[in-house]
Amino acid sequence: RRSVVIDLGCHAGGWSQIILERINREGFVVGVDKVLIEPLENHHFVQGDIQHAATIRKVEELLGGRQANLVLADLAPRMSGSRMDDHLASIDLARSALHWALSFLRHNGTFVTKVFDGASLENFKVQLAQHFAKARVCR
């Protein structure tokens, strides 16, 4: 079975390149970002905001009913300089990425996201545990 991967926040393409190498360019990789990236061979890019329904629809069309093995979200909010505000914005993006994972992942699929550490992290981990057999934090 060919791997299907969704790379949220794929600008500048680094994780997508690694994924393409790991799956020997035989899988289906969709990258999503607000910022345009240089085209990659065997990579399907959608320019858009992950929090907008139009972006989700474009990815649904590209996938054509396929479900992902992996949803990777290397997202960061626009930094405000306030540690708490940046943490909360990061959690908000991670929750949006979780929505993508719940929508597009196949059974026993993997969801990886980046989150800034802070007071809401424990609550987010509880939310993850409701949907995944294993949820862990790596630093």
Automatic annotation (TrEMBL):
<dbReference type="Pfam" id="PF01728">
    <property type="entry name" value="FtsJ"/>
</dbReference>
<keyword id="KW-0698">rRNA processing</keyword>
<dbReference type="InterPro" id="IPR050082">
    <property type="entry name" value="RNA_methyltr_RlmE"/>
</dbReference>
<feature type="domain" description="Ribosomal RNA methyltransferase FtsJ">
    <location>
        <begin position="3"/>
        <end position="138"/>
    </location>
</feature>
<dbReference type="InterPro" id="IPR029063">
    <property type="entry name" value="SAM-dependent_MTases_sf"/>
</dbReference>
<comment type="similarity">
    <text>Belongs to the class I-like SAM-binding methyltransferase superfamily. RNA methyltransferase RlmE family.</text>
</comment>
<protein>
    <recommendedName>
        <fullName>rRNA methyltransferase 2, mitochondrial</fullName>
    </recommendedName>
</protein>
<keyword id="KW-0808">Transferase</keyword>
<keyword id="KW-0949">S-adenosyl-L-methionine</keyword>
<keyword id="KW-0489">Methyltransferase</keyword>
<dbReference type="InterPro" id="IPR002877">
    <property type="entry name" value="RNA_MeTrfase_FtsJ_dom"/>
</dbReference>
